[in-house]
Amino acid sequence: MATSQTPPRLEIAVAEPELAAVPRVGWRGPLAALVRKDVQLELRTKQTAIGMVLFALVAMVIFQFAIGSRTDDATPFAAGIIWATVALTAVLAVSRAWAAEREGRTIDGLLAAPVGRGVLLTAKAVSIFLYLLALEIVVVPLAVLFFVESAAATDLAIVFGLCLLANLALAIVGSLVASLAAFTRGRELLVPALFLPAIVPVLIAAAGGTFSVLGGTDDMAELRGYSLLLAGCAVVFGLVAYATYEFVFDD
Q1: In this predicted structure, what is the pLDDT of residue 12?
Q2: Does residue 200 surpass a pLDDT of 70?
Q3: Could you give the CA distance from residue 139 to residue 9 in angstroms, rounded to a whole number?
Q4: Counting beta carbons within 10 angstroms of the beta carbon of residue 223, is it exposed (0 to 12), middle (13 to 18) or buried (19 or more)?
Q5: Over the stretch 185-194, which tens digit does the pLDDT of each residue have?
Q6: How would you class 204 by CB atoms within 10 Å of its CB: exposed for 0-12, middle for 13-18, buried for 19 or more?
Q7: % of the chain with per-residue pLDDT over 70
Q8: CA dihedral sign, ordered 228, 196, 248, 35
Q9: Cα torsion at 108, 114, 119, 121 (round to 10°)?
Q10: By the 8 A CB rule, do 67 and 147 touch?
Q11: Buried/exposed code over 176-185 (b: 16+ C-beta within 10 A; e: otherwise)
């Protein structure tokens, strides 16, 4: 009796397709590109810068009529006037930090790009820092001209050094608040409600350090203490931003 033989099976090995690895993007290139984009857009439109300068000039004129015309020496008020003007004008810069992306509907594209959200937050902080620095180049000399009887060039240099420290803290918290409010409807009310209370320690330290320079006391120990307080505020705000930057763009 013939036995039937089972034909051998033909096994074909199908190779599983390999997923293409997503190239890892560094942070320096995207950060420089984002900051360059903000600067070039502002140089082309000049919307935020002109608005900030005009607001600061109006505030300085109001302070001049409110204080300068009622006292022979307004030097003790100069530091408070400078930083009150900077704080109120900074609200405008923070409120418009994401205006171009929101109006152009490019926020979703930025969030979908292979760029860390920390890079987006840092880029906005750098842009706000530059806005504030440009503002202070106008505000500080005008305040010295209107309210300070005598100030040396070294005093202005020290004040601008304080501005750099204060701007670092203001830019970090401003970028964080602007990113938190980017998707909210009441961002015009939310930004000042969150930003102004958060920067109170920065304003106190900056005004105190500026008064120790322009007020005629020349107290270097006091200036050093306020400078350390500004640096501490920048570190604290930086740590808060580092701990929360992954969640600030969530709806």
Answers
A1: 52
A2: yes
A3: 86
A4: buried
A5: 777 888 999 9
A6: middle
A7: 85
A8: negative
A9: 20
A10: yes
A11: bbbbbbbeee
- Average the pLDDT over 145-166 and give the result: 88
Measured distance CA(141)–CA(156) in Å, rounded: 8
Q: What percent of the chain has pLDDT over 90?
A: 36
For 139, phi and psi rounded to 5 degrees? -75, -45
Please state the domain extents for the chain.
29-244
Task: Tell me the chain's radius of gyration from C-alpha atoms.
Answer: 26
- Length of the chain in residues, anyone? 251
Full DSSP string of 25-76: P-SHHHHHHHHHHHHHHHHHH-HHHHHHHHHHHHHHHHHHHHTGGG-S--HH
Q: What are the structure tokens assigned to 97, written together?
A: 């930090």
Two structure tokens written together for 222: 């006091």
Per-residue H/E/C for 107-173: HHHHHHCCCCHHHHHHHHHHHHHHHHHHHHHHHHHHHHHHHCCCCCHHHHHHHHHHHHHHHHHHHHH
What is d(CA 38, CA 104) in angstroms, rounded to the nearest whole number? 13
Which position has the token pair 């600030």?
A: 248
Residues with Cβ within 8 Å of 223's Cβ and at least 6 positions away in sequence, in order, are 158, 209, 212, 213
- 181 phi/psi in degrees, rounded to 5: -95, 5
Instruction: Quote the Cα angle for 58-60-64, to 5°.
Output: 115
CA–CA separation, 23 and 191 (whole Å)? 36
Which residue is associated with the tokens 């926020």?
107
**Token pair belonging to 115:** 């760029």
Please measure the distance between the N-terminal and C-terminal CA atoms of the chain and give it in whole angstroms: 78
